[in-house]
Design a protein that fits this description.
Blueprint lengths: L4 H18 L1 E8 L10 E4 L5 E3 L5 E5 L4 E6 L6 E5 L5 E6 L26 E5 H4 L8 H4 L5 E4 L8 E4 L13 E2 L1 E5 L2 E2 L6 E2 L9 E8 L3 H4 L5 E7 L6 E11 L3 E11 L3 E12 L8 E15 L2 E15 L6 H5 L7 H5 L3 E16 L4 E17 L3 E22 L2 E24 L2 E26 L3 E18 L14 E4 L3 E11 L4 E12 L21 E14 L4 E22 L5 E23 L2 E2 L5 E18 L25 E11 L3 E10 L2 E2 L7 E2 L2 E14 L3 E10 L7 E4 L13 E3 L5 E10 L2
Parallel strand pairs: 1-7, 12-16
Antiparallel strand pairs: 1-4, 2-3, 2-5, 5-6, 8-15, 9-10, 11-14, 12-13, 15-16, 17-18, 17-44, 18-19, 19-20, 20-21, 21-22, 22-23, 23-24, 24-25, 25-26, 26-27, 27-28, 27-29, 29-30, 30-31, 31-32, 32-33, 33-35, 34-35, 35-36, 36-37, 37-40, 38-39, 40-41, 41-44, 42-43
Length: 780
């Protein structure tokens, strides 16, 4: 049988390609946090010293003579060693970014875009930073960074964030965060009302966290404090793997996580279940949490990626109330009688699901579209009653990353929109000695929030880049007061509908590159935060609270960032002035015994936040081939000069009105300092230690009362390595608060101190606590 020339040529080419594959090793290298392909990664064969570099698509090919170990290195990333048993292998390598590189992990910028070229303050935490401690409590990592403070009502519940002092006025309101926007794998955690609940986020599963400090409305819509991105760690090793993580510690702490992962050329999937229990160091403060997560990434083509995220969480947090200043000073393990009598607690059950499609239309245009649904039920029992609520949110976000070439003026643009609808229902009941009383409030809310935004960057002569953007923000809500009606004629009807005028928030920034690895910048941006629908009615009394106005803010910032001394020294410095008008803050109402009955929101005046933030690290040793392969100390410092302006106790302007203008902002320490060191050995041993100091801070508007300062010393040692070809082990032990410092996890603010012994402190453990863990991963 005669063969055609074409068929013969095809056979020859096929055999040649097969032979070439058997004498080479190829693969793709990714950013583990952003899941973006990395170019210019140096790949070295440790046996032959042959090297190759990845191309713009992250691909590489290296000659192969047999079993060997490859070393992957890129500026700003942790080096990685990968054993290869035979030629012909195709690898998928994920490099972990170092925190000091501050790589942007967000849904609007091109993946992997270095923050040295971003004219704003960005904090990025990679997996190793998130797991310097147990990895279960995000505040352990975030509170080591400048300008950010995370606190909690219990060890794992009532968690809120303040960024550059913004958010302190809401800390006492239902223990729900406000003033910033948070995203979980691209899905908004923040609902349309601007409220953020973090208690149902599985922090132990996170692989990267990014915080933009200050208004970012030109790419994320409204919000004054900033933006928080939480990203679950994705697997990257080809094949199917199983991981079991177990951690146990003081006071009954127990965490178990089981994870199944699969990676192919066309998809990456992860399914996990986590259970977390904690008896607590304090009376009536135990915690139980369950998390279920599915995360998938499907790559039907080089131009298209579809990601899916589904999570379920159930949380049970007991509450003992607060301590007064004397009880806190005496380090008493006690609680408020009325909290204990009511068996105070929070029960939260949530579900969220979303799909994101990233599509590269051309070399110059990429679209990212997300659609999602979230919902939760929440029951909050406190000293004076029970609040039951349910909430459902759904929405979408679409972004276009665009490169436009106007001859000698190439432009990069980020344009898009976001829309979210939240329907909520809340009932408030009286309660005494755990016996449910009369219905006091019954409110339904419906809120629609949307934004359109665009931001463009243009290179100018002298290594300058000009960035300009603007967003248009829209919000409307309706409130249905179900207590109003003929059966309750004396009730003040809190029903109503409110639509705010569109608000435009611009941004303008100028960045100057100093070589390729450093920059200085100036940035001016505005933010906007309206009152929420839930603020419109006071749940405890059912009274309308209709006179509220939205907050507006303008921030001026100058800063610099970069790497020096052959990349060993990384620094970031920012000075800012954030002015907030019509500041929304919580007003607490107390019973005669000092117990907090309830709180409600008021416009109290203006706030001026001026500060300095610094972060730096230096790699004394960073040589993967040496026995002592890494020694990297790091430090951060925050200076905050935050004061009130035209800030009054009420709007009555009578003899009883108190003017707090010029007083320091409550809940903000003037000085916060953190330092630490990371160390590693070539064979897999590692260790770290961190030291954190928080200055004293005012807790009353008149600055007559202050929370004391404190310090915390933490440390951890462990071993991470391979046992055989398929088993990876990570074993560790660590301790928290090793010096036994008296500290608080949260403080009730805005006290008038017109009642005896007001309760305000939520204490941390008074003595050192310890933990140990063992993680086993069975690899493909």
């Amino acid at each position: 049988m005669k063969r055609s020339p074409a068929l013969a040529l095809f056979a020859v080419l096929t055999l040649a390609a097969s032979a070439a594959a058997q004498t080479s090793i190829s693969g793709t290298v990714f950013d583990a946090a952003a899941d973006a392909r990395l170019d210019d990664v140096v790949v070295t064969d440790s046996t032959t010293d042959a090297t190759a570099r990845t191309d713009r698509d992250g691909r590489f090919t290296l000659p192969c003579t047999g079993a060997t170990t490859l070393v992957f290195q890129k500026f700003g990333y942790e080096a990685q060693r990968r054993a290869v048993s035979a030629c012909g292998a195709t690898l998928r390598i994920a490099l972990e970014p170092r925190a000091e590189i501050l790589t942007a992990v967000n849904v609007v910028a091109p993946a992997g875009r270095a923050a040295v070229r971003q004219p704003r303050s960005v904090t990025t935490l990679a997996a190793q930073d998130l797991h310097r401690g147990t990895g279960l409590f995000l505040r352990d990592a975030l509170n080591l960074t400048p300008g950010v403070r995370m606190q909690a009502r219990t060890m794992a519940g009532g968690q809120t964030l303040t960024i550059r002092g913004y958010g302190t006025g809401s800390d006492a309101k239902n223990f729900i965060g406000s003033g910033f926007k948070a995203y979980y794998n691209g899905i908004p955690i923040t609902d349309a009302e601007g409220q953020t609940i973090l208690d149902d986020v599985d922090f132990a599963s996170l692989g990267a966290v990014e915080v933009i400090r200050g208004p970012a409305s030109s790419t994320y819509g409204g919000g004054i404090g900033g933006v928080v991105q939480l990203n679950t760690a994705l697997p990257h090793e080809r094949g199917t793997g199983i991981t079991q993580e177990t951690l146990a510690g003081s006071y009954g702490l127990l965490r178990s996580t089981t994870r199944i992962e699969n990676v192919t050329d066309g998809s990456t999937t992860m399914l996990s279940y986590g259970h977390q229990g904690y008896d607590s160091y304090r009376i009536h403060s135990g915690s139980r949490k369950d998390f279920g997560t599915f995360l998938g990434e499907f790559r039907p083509s080089d131009a298209s990626t579809v990601s899916a995220f589904v999570s379920y969480a159930k949380s049970h947090e007991l509450r003992a109330g607060e301590l007064d200043s004397l009880q806190f000073a005496q380090e008493l393990n006690t609680g408020e009688d009325r909290y204990l009598a009511n068996n105070a607690r929070q029960d939260l059950e949530s579900f969220r699901a979303g799909v994101t499609h990233r599509y590269r239309l051309s070399d110059r245009v990429e679209s990212v579209a997300t659609a999602y649904f979230t919902g939760y039920t929440r029951e909050d029992v406190y000293a004076a009653g029970l609040n039951a609520s349910s909430n459902q949110s759904f929405g979408a976000r679409a972004v276009f990353n665009t490169d436009v070439d106007l001859g000698s003026l190439p432009l990069h643009g980020v344009s898009g929109g976001e829309i979210e609808k939240t329907n909520g229902s809340a009932q408030g009941y009286a309660m005494t000695d755990a016996v449910l009383g009369a219905l006091r409030s019954n409110v339904g809310t419906s809120t629609m929030q949307s934004s359109l935004f665009t931001q463009w960057s243009a290179p100018l002569p002298s290594d300058l880049t000009l960035t300009a953007g603007v967003s248009a923000n829209f919000i409307e809500y309706s409130v249905t007061d179900r207590m109003a009606g003929s059966a309750n004629p004396s009730h003040l009807d809190g029903s109503g509908r409110k639509s705010f005028d569109p608000v435009f928030t611009p941004r303008l920034a100028l960045l100057k590159m100093l070589g390729s690895d450093a920059s200085v910048y100036v940035d001016v941006s505005q933010g906007y935060s309206p009152p929420t629908a839930s603020d419109a009615v006071i749940p405890y009394t059912g009274e309308p609270n209709a006179a509220l106005k939205p907050e507006r803010a303008t921030q001026y910032e100058v800063g610099g960032k970069g790497r020096f001394l052959d990349g060993r020294l990384a620094v970031q410095l920012a000075l800012f002035d954030l002015h907030v008008t019509d500041k929304l803050t919580s007003e607490a109402v107390f019973d005669t015994d000092g117990t907090v009955l309830y709180s409600y929101t008021v416009n109290a005046g203006d706030q001026n936040d001026r500060g300095l933030e610094f972060a730096g690290s230096y790699a004394l040793v960073d040589e993967p081939a040496r026995t002592l392969s890494l020694v990297r100390p790091f430090v951060s410092y925050t200076y905050s000069d935050f004061t009130y302006d035209d800030f009054k106790s009420d709007a009555n302007d009578n003899a009883a009105t108190v003017d707090y203008s010029g007083k320091r902002v409550v809940g903000v320490a003037r000085h916060v300092f953190s330092a630490g060191v990371d160390a590693a050995l070539r064979f897999g041993g590692y260790a770290n230690a961190t030291y954190h100091v928080t200055d004293r801070m005012p807790i009353s508007y008149d600055n007559a009362h202050w929370a004391p300062g404190f310090s915390l010393l933490d440390a951890k040692i462990g071993y991470a390595g391979d046992v055989g070809r398929r088993l990876r082990v990570n074993a560790f032990v660590g301790g928290h608060n090793l010096t036994g410092s008296r500290y608080y996890t949260q403080v009730f603010l805005n006290h008038k101190f017109d009642t005896p012994n007001p309760h305000m402190y939520l204490p941390g453990p008074y003595t050192a606590t310890f933990y140990a863990g063992l993680n086993l991963s069975l690899r493909p």
